[in-house]
Design goal:
Blueprint: H1 2-18, H2 40-46, E1 50-53, H3 58-75, E2 80-82, E3 90-95, H4 100-105, E4 117-124, E5 127-134, H5 137-152, E6 161-164, E7 170-174, H6 204-215, E8 220-222, H7 235-248, E9 254-259, H8 263-266, H9 278-294, E10 300-303, H10 320-331, E11 337-341, H11 356-361, E12 372-377, E13 400-406, H12 422-430, H13 442-446, E14 457-461, H14 474-488, H15 494-505, H16 510-531, H17 562-566, E15 572-573, H18 590-595, H19 605-608, E16 611-612, H20 623-646, H21 654-686, H22 700-704
Parallel strand pairs: 1-2, 1-3, 3-5, 7-8, 7-14, 8-9, 9-10, 10-11, 11-12, 12-13, 13-14
Antiparallel strand pairs: 4-5, 4-6, 15-16
Helix pairs in contact: 3-5, 9-10, 12-15, 14-15, 15-16, 16-20, 20-21
The protein binds alpha-D-glucopyranuronic acid.
Alpha-D-glucopyranuronic acid binds next to loops.
Length: 714
C-alpha cells in the first residue's frame, strides 16, 4: 500500500514538473539565481530580443554569459546575440571603451565611480533598446545582475533609469575555514575550498560561489579562519591561493588572507615576531612581495591579534597600532589593506568585557596608517541576538572603521532556526552614534562619509559550506543575500531586501510574498524573545553555543561563564553597566538615556542595568512577568511561523518546502527548550510565581544535564 502511494506521488510530481509547476524538486543550490520562467503577460510586455556586446574581457564575458543564462531561463528562449542593434528590444552592455554604441550615447557615467552601473531605456539607431553601462567591466557585471534582479522581481523594463554604485569600498566575506576543511562556527558542511585539489583544479562550485557574490556586489573574500594557520602563507599554499584568485578575478572578487602574527617564527625561523624588529619586517616584506608576484590584485590581510589567546604585537609590549602599521607599510606599495580586528577582551573579572575594546583602541585613534581599517563587531560582546552597537563606532574619527557582522548564526539557532538577519543588520547600521550630533549613524561611520575616510567596508562571517544548499538551510541563504545588499548600500531596508529575495528564491505570487516577508521580518525578534529577551546576553551553552546554558560556569575564565553576564540574584537580574563605565563610552544623549533605568529602551534593559524582579515595566507587568511573557511570545511566534508556512505549499517545490517545514518544527521544539530551561533557572532567583498557569515542563536539573545535540521532548 505504502509503495503504491509512493508511485502515485512520484507520478504526480513528475507530471507537475512537466507542467512547469513548483513541483520540480530543488536542492537550493541555485540560490536566488534560479531564473525560473516569468508569467506570460510579463514576458509579452518585457521580452529581451537580443544581447549586444562589444569588445571582450573575462569579466564582460561573465556578464554576457550570465545574461544569456538568465534571460533564457526567465523568458524560455535564448536571446539572439550580436554586436550591433538591428531591431527593437536589444540589451546593449559594456563600457564606453568596450562598446562604441554606449560611448555615442553620452550617458552620465562620471558619478558612477569604478564599480557602479547605469541601466537605462534608450533609443539606438531608431530602435528601442536598454543599455547596461559602466566605467569598468565589473560595473557592467554588477549591472547585468541588477538587470536580472529587475526581471526576477517583475519590474517593467520599458522605462528604466537606474543608477547605482556601492557606498562602501570593501565588501568582504570572512570565511572561518581551516586548513583541514572544517569551518569554525560553520553549520553548512565542510569548507568549499578544496585545498588538496588546488592548484590543478577549481570546481564549478567556486565559480557559482563567485557568481552569487557578484550578484550582490561582494568584492572580497578572506579564505581562511581568523584563528589562522601560518601554513596559508607557505609557498605551496600561495600557489593554490593564486589559482583560486584567478578563478574569482573575473567576478570582481579579490582574495585576502587571515594571517597568524607569529608566522615569521613558525615559517621564517625567526626568534621573534616583534613588529619593530627589522628582521621581522623584512620577513613580512618578502612574504608580501611573494604573494603579489603570484596574485597581483591580492587584497591584503585580516589580523586577529592578542585576542582569545592568539599571538600579537602586545607579546612584545607593542601596541595594536605598531603591529598594524608594520604590516600596512609592507602592503602599501601594492595597494593592499590591513583589516585589523578590534575583538579583544581582558581576562579580568573586575573589568566589564563590553568596555575592553573601546579602552584599548580609542587611545590609538589617529595612530593607524591610511591603509589600516579597524574591523569592529556590531556589538561589544559577540554576535548576540541583540546587542547595542559597539561604542567604538563614533569614537575613533581619525581611524577607518569597518563593520563585522556574523552571517553564520553561531548564537541564533545555527543551522535550523529561521532568523532573518536583515533586521539585525539594519538595527545596527541605523543606530545613531551622535558623534557629530544627530544623523551620525553607524552606516555613515562605516561607509567613510561621516569622517571622510577613503577606506570603508563591511565584512560578514560567512555561512557558506559544501551543503547542497550552501548555507545549511534555504532561509539562511537570505542572510548571505542581505549581507551583500546592505554592504552595497548600508541604508537599504531589511524589508525591501527580504521582498526581493523571496521573489527570486521562491515566487512572485503576492499571496506568498506577504506572509513570508512577514515571517522573516519577525523571525529575529522571535529568537531574541526565546533566547535572550530584554537585553540578556551570552547565556548560551558553553563552547558550542547551541541551546540554553544560563547556569554554565565551566571554563577557566569568569567572562566565559553565563552568570557573569546575567547576574541574576534574589534582588533582580541584569548587568549594571553604569557602574562598569560602559555607558559613559557613548556620546550624549545616549549615555544619559542609558544611564537611567526608566530611559533605557526596554529591549536592552538588562544589558545596561541590574533591575529588581518587581520593577514595573511599560506594559504594567513586573519585570519577572515581562521576562516570562517574552520567553512565551518567542515560542508563540515560532508556532505562528509554522502555521503560516503550512498554508503556503503551492508556491514552493516539495524539497525546499519540506526542509523549511521540518526546520520550523525543530525550531519550535528548541524554542520551548530555551523558554522552559531559562525560566526554570531564573525562577530560583526570582522566587515569584509563574503567571497564567504557565510552568516549565521539567525540573531545572533535567535541562542542565541535556547532552549536546539533544533537546527535551516538548
Ligand atoms: C567568537 C567565536 C569564536 C571566534 C571569535 C572571533 O568568540 O565563538 O569561534 O574565533 O568569536 O571572532 O575571533
Amino acid at each position: 500500500m505504502k509503495q503504491r502511494l509512493g508511485i502515485a506521488l512520484g507520478l504526480a510530481l513528475a507530471l507537475m514538473s512537466l507542467l512547469g509547476g513548483p513541483a520540480r524538486a530543488e536542492s537550493g543550490y541555485d540560490l536566488w539565481l534560479r531564473y525560473q520562467p516569468v508569467e506570460e503577460d510579463y514576458a509579452a510586455a518585457n521580452q529581451v530580443a537580443a544581447l549586444v556586446t562589444g569588445q571582450r574581457s573575462p569579466t564582460l564575458d561573465a556578464a554576457a554569459l550570465e545574461l544569456k543564462r538568465g534571460l533564457t531561463g526567465l523568458f524560455g528562449t535564448p536571446p539572439a546575440q550580436g554586436s550591433a542593434v538591428a531591431a527593437d528590444g536589444a540589451l546593449v552592455i559594456g563600457t564606453s571603451k568596450s562598446m562604441p554604441a554606449i560611448a555615442a550615447l553620452g550617458l552620465p557615467l562620471q558619478g558612477l565611480g569604478d564599480e557602479g552601473y547605469l541601466i537605462r531605456s534608450v533609443s539606438i539607431d531608431g530602435h528601442k533598446a536598454t543599455v547596461i553601462a559602466a566605467n569598468s567591466d565589473v560595473g557592467v557585471l554588477y549591472g547585468a545582475f541588477a538587470f536580472l534582479r529587475l526581471i526576477g522581481t517583475r519590474t517593467p523594463l520599458a522605462n528604466l533609469d537606474v543608477a547605482s554604485s556601492p557606498k562602501t569600498r570593501l565588501r568582504v566575506l570572512d570565511h572561518w575555514d581551516n586548513l583541514n576543511g572544517t569551518v569554525e562556527r560553520g553549520y553548512a558542511g565542510a569548507s568549499i575550498w578544496d585545498w588538496p585539489a588546488l592548484p590543478e583544479h577549481v570546481s564549478r562550485r567556486i565559480i557559482d560561489y563567485a557568481r552569487a557574490n557578484a550578484s550582490i556586489g561582494i568584492n572580497g573574500t578572506v579564505v581562511n579562519n581568523v584563528n589562522a594557520d601560518a601554513a596559508f602563507l607557505t609557498t605551496e599554499y600561495i600557489e593554490k591561493e593564486a589559482k583560486l584568485a584567478d578563478a574569482l578575478r573575473p567576478f570582481g572578487i579579490r582574495l585576502y588572507l587571515s594571517v597568524r602574527w607569529s608566522a615569521p617564527i613558525e615559517l621564517g625561523g625567526l626568534k621573534s615576531a616583534d613588529p619593530l624588529d627589522p628582521a621581522v619586517k623584512a620577513w613580512w616584506q618578502s612574504k608580501v612581495d611573494e604573494i603579489y608576484r603570484a596574485i597581483p590584485d591580492f587584497g591584503g590581510f585580516l589580523v586577529k591579534a592578542n585576542s582569545e589567546g592568539q599571538p600579537g604585537p602586545q607579546d612584545y609590549h607593542r601596541t595594536h597600532a605598531d603591529g598594524a602599521n608594520m604590516i600596512a607599510d609592507v602592503l602599501a606599495p601594492h595597494h593592499g589593506v590591513v583589516m585589523w580586528r578590534a575583538f579583544v577582551y581582558a581576562n579580568d573579572p573586575k573589568i566589564d568585557r563590553a568596555t575592553t575594546a573601546y579602552n584599548e583602541f580609542v587611545p590609538l585613534d589617529g595612530k593607524f596608517r591610511d591603509n589600516v581599517v579597524l574591523q569592529v563587531k556590531n556589538g561589544p560582546l559577540d554576535f548576540q541576538p541583540r546587542e547595542p552597537f559597539s561604542p567604538l563606532f563614533g569614537a575613533m574619527p581619525r581611524t577607518s572603521l569597518m563593520m563585522e557582522f556574523q552571517i553564520t548564526k553561531e548564537y541564533l539557532g545555527q543551522q535550523t532556526h529561521l532568523a532573518y538577519l536583515g533586521t539585525l543588520y539594519e538595527e545596527a547600521l541605523k543606530s545613531d552614534t551622535y558623534e557629530h550630533g544627530p544623523g551620525s549613524t553607524v552606516a555613515r561611520v562605516i561607509d567613510g562619509s561621516l569622517d571622510h575616510h577613503p577606506v570603508s567596508g563591511i565584512a560578514g562571517v560567512a555561512n557558506i559550506g559544501n551543503d547542497p544548499d550552501w548555507c545549511g538551510s534555504i532561509f539562511n541563504q537570505a542572510n548571505w543575500y542581505v549581507f551583500g545588499r546592505m554592504a552595497w548600500d548600508p541604508e537599504i531596508s531589511a524589508r525591501a531586501v527580504a521582498d526581493e529575495w523571496v521573489r527570486q528564491t521562491f515566487s512572485n505570487n503576492p499571496a506568498f510574498i506577504a506572509p513570508v516577508v512577514d515571517m522573516m521580518m519577525k523571525s529575529r525578534e522571535a529568537v531574541v524573545d526565546y533566547m535572550t529577551p530584554l537585553g540578556l546576553a551570552l547565556i548560551m551553552a558553553h563552547g558550542h553555543h547551541m541551546g540554553p546554558g544560563p547556569w554554565d560556569t565551566i571554563g577557566p575564565r569568569e567572562d566565559w561563564k553565563a552568570p557573569y553576564y546575567h547576574r541574576a540574584d534574589a534582588e533582580g537580574i541584569g548587568f549594571d553597566r553604569v557602574a562598569s563605565g560602559y555607558v559613559a563610552q557613548y556620546h550624549a544623549p545616549l549615555k544619559d538615556a542609558f544611564a537611567g533605568v526608566a530611559t533605557t529602551p526596554e529591549d536592552l534593559l538588562l544589558w545596561f542595568h541590574h533591575v529588581s524582579w518587581d520593577y514595573r515595566m511599560k506594559s504594567g507587568r513586573t519585570l519577572w512577568q515581562e521576562l516570562v511573557a517574552h520567553y512565551r511570545k518567542g515560542v508563540d511566534e515560532v508556532a505562528a511561523m509554522q502555521a503560516a508556512w503550512a498554508k503556503l505549499g503551492d508556491d514552493v517545490d516539495p524539497e525546499r518546502y519540506a526542509q523549511v517545514r521540518d526546520f520550523l518544527a525543530i525550531q519550535h521544539r528548541e524554542a520551548i527548550w530555551w523558554r522552559d530551561a531559562c525560566l526554570a533557572y531564573f525562577v530560583q532567583f526570582s522566587r515569584r510565581p509563574f503567571p497564567e498557569g504557565y510552568k516549565p515542563k521539567y525540573p531545572l536539573s533535567y535541562y542542565e544535564k541535556m547532552p549536546y545535540g539533544a533537546s527535551p521532548k516538548p
